[in-house]
Amino acid sequence: MRLSHLSLVDFRSYAGLELELEPGVCVLVGPNGHGKTNVVEAVGYLATHGSHRVAQDQPLVRIGAQRAVIRAAVHHEDRSVLLELEINPGRANRARVNRNAVGKTRDALGYLRTVLFAPEDLALVKGDPAVRRQFLDELLVARTPRFAAVRADYERALKQRNALLRSAAQLRRANRGAAVDMTTLDLWDGHLASAGAHLLAARLELVESLNPLVGKAYGTIAGRDTALLDYKPSFELSTGGGSPVDESAVHDALIAALNAGRKDEIERGMTLVGPHRDELALLLDHGHGPVPAKAYASHGESWSFALSAKLAAFELLRAEAIEPVLILDDVFAELDNSRRGQLAQVAASAEQVLITAAVEEDVPASLSGMRYRIGKGTAERLR
Amino acid sequence: MYEGVVQDLIDELGRLPNIGPKSAQRIAFHLLQADPVDVKRLAETLLKVKETVRFCEVCGNVAAAERCRICLDPRRDASVLCVVEESKDVVAIEKTREFRGRYHVLGGALSPIEGIGPDELRVRELMARLADGVVTELILATDPNMEGEATASFLARMVKPLTADGSLRVTRLASGLPVGGDLEYADEVTLGRAFAGRRKIDG
C-alpha cells in the first residue's frame, strides 16, 4: 500500500500543502518546529481518525481556520482510492471516498493503513499498562475490524457493571452492611465475560504471533539480548498456551474470578478483574533470565523495545494482509551508525516508508529515494 | 444571546431530545412569526397532554383513559403478550399488523448507568399479569442492544418458574438481515447473528 499524493488544507502549520509521493523511501528533512511531524501526523490521522500526539482535534486545525482537510491518493495493487477527511473540532468529521460522502466516517477507515513510530511511543515501555493494552487492541482492530465492536461492547458492559457495583456500594453503606440484592449483577457478568473472553483470547493469540517478530526486530536494532512480550491476565487463567486459545475456557475463568471477587468488588464499587486490568509485560533478557523492561531497561533499550514492537506490528500486518505504509518519525537521531544501517535495511524493504529527520546526515545514505526539505509551512523537493 | 423571554424559549426548546441550539433558535423564531391562534393551540395542547394523557393501568402504554385502546379491544388475543421498552415500540409493532396479542410496556431497559434497575421498570406488574395463566406465550421485544439483551435475559430468568410445566413459552424477536437490503452492506455483528439464527428452507 502506498500514497501517491498528499494534500493538506489548514492542518496544523500548513495553510496549504501539496506533496507528491513515490513508492519506496520518502524523507522529510527540516529543523525542529517547522512541521515535519505534522505531515506524518496527518497521514496517521487519515488512517486511524485519531492523532498520535493529541486527544483533542482543535490543535490540528490551523489557528484562525474553522476546519482542516486531509486528502490523499492511496494505491493498493492496481486499485487506487481518493480519501478525504474534513476535521471539524467540536462537531462530526466528514469523510469522502472517491469524492462520494460516506454515511459514517468510520466507513472511510481501512482504505489506508499505517504503522507509525514516534518518540511518544516510548510510553509503550515507560507508561501505564493502559498504553500497552491500547497498542494490542489497535493492532487487533487493524487486523480484524470487527474487534472495534467487541471492544466497544466490553467497555459498555464494564461501565454498566461498574455503575451497578457503585450503587450497591452506596446502598450497603446506607444500610450499614446489610445484604444488597444483586440479581442483575449476574447479567452484566455474562455480558462482560462474553465480550471480555473474546477480546482476551484474541489478545493472547496476537501476543503469540507478535513474539517472534518482536525478538527479531529487537535483535536487529539492539544487536544483542532478547526481548519478549508476556501477557499477564488480571485473574487466574491457564489456557495451556498454544493457538487457538480456548475462548470458552477464558470465559469460564473470568466468570469464576468475578464470582470469587464479588464481595470485594461490591465493597469497592468497581470491576477488579478482566481485560481492562490486564498487563502486557515487556521483558528483556540480558542473559540472566527475563526482567521487566520498565524497571531494568536503559533509555536506549526502552526506546529500541518500543520501536521493535511497532516494527513487529508492521511485519505482522505485512505478512497477513495488506502492507501498511510505514512511518518513522524522528528515529534515526537516537541510533548509532551500525543500528542506523540495520534499520535502513528494514525500512528499505517497505513498499513505502515516510521518514522525518532534523538532520539529513542522520539518515543513512543507503536510503535512496525522495527527499523533501520542510520549511515553515512549505515543502521543497530536493531529489 | 437574545433578550429575556425569547432566550428563555430557546433554552426550553433546547432541552427537547434531538434539538440543538440552532434548531431551537429556528423553532423559536418560527413561533414568533406564526399566527397567535396556532401558537395558542400548541400551548394548550401541551398543557392538555400533560393533564389528560395517562398510562394504561394494565400495560403501561400511553392512553386517553384508564385503559388503552389495545387492552380494551376484545378481539386482541389475550394469550400472547409482547414486552417492549417504550410506547413508541408499540406503535412500531402495530404498524406491522402482524401481531394480534397484547403488550406490556416496561418503561425502559436495565441500565445501571442511568440508575434503572428492575424496580424502575414495570416488572412487578408483568409478573402479576402472568399469574393467572391466561398468557401462554411471552414475546421479549426489547431493543437488540446490550441493555435490551440484559433486560430480556433478566425477564427470561424471572419467568422461568412459570415455564417449567410448559404452560408458558418465552420467545425473543429474531435479529438479522434487513429485508430488501444487500448482504454485502450488513455489518459483521448483524451478519453474524443472522448466521446464528439461520433457518431451514424447504425446497
UniProtKB/TrEMBL annotation, chain A:
Compartment(s): Cytoplasm
Gene3D superfamilies: P-loop containing nucleotide triphosphate hydrolases, RecF/RecN/SMC, N-terminal domain
Residues that coordinate or bind ATP: G30, P31, N32, G33, H34, G35, K36, T37
Keyword Cytoplasm appears in the UniProt entry: yes
GO MF terms, alphabetically ordered: ATP binding; single-stranded DNA binding
Domain RecF/RecN/SMC N-terminal: 3-361
GO cellular component: cytoplasm
Main localisation: cytoplasm
Sorted UniProt keywords: ATP-binding, Cytoplasm, DNA damage, DNA repair, DNA replication, DNA-binding, Nucleotide-binding, SOS response
Any Pfam family the entry gives: SMC_N
GO biological process annotation, one example: SOS response
Keyword Cytoplasm appears in the UniProt entry: yes
Biological role: The RecF protein is involved in DNA metabolism; it is required for DNA replication and normal SOS inducibility. RecF binds preferentially to single-stranded, linear DNA. It also seems to bind ATP.
PANTHER family for this protein: DNA REPLICATION AND REPAIR PROTEIN RECF
Family: Belongs to the RecF family.
Protein name: DNA replication and repair protein RecF
Organism, scientific name: Actinospica acidithermotolerans
TrEMBL record, chain B:
Keyword Metal-binding: yes
Domain of life: Bacteria
Segments forming C4-type zinc fingers: 56-71
Domain Toprim span(s) in chain numbering: 79-178
One Pfam short name: RecR_HhH
Single annotated GO MF: DNA binding
PROSITE patterns: RECR, TOPRIM
UniProt key word Magnesium: no
Record-level GO BP terms: DNA recombination; DNA repair
UniProt keyword annotations, A-Z: DNA damage, DNA recombination, DNA repair, Metal-binding, Zinc, Zinc-finger
Role played: May play a role in DNA repair. It seems to be involved in an RecBC-independent recombinational process of DNA repair. It may act with RecF and RecO.
NCBIfam families: recR
Family membership: Belongs to the RecR family.
Annotated protein name in UniProt: Recombination protein RecR
Native source species: Actinospica acidithermotolerans
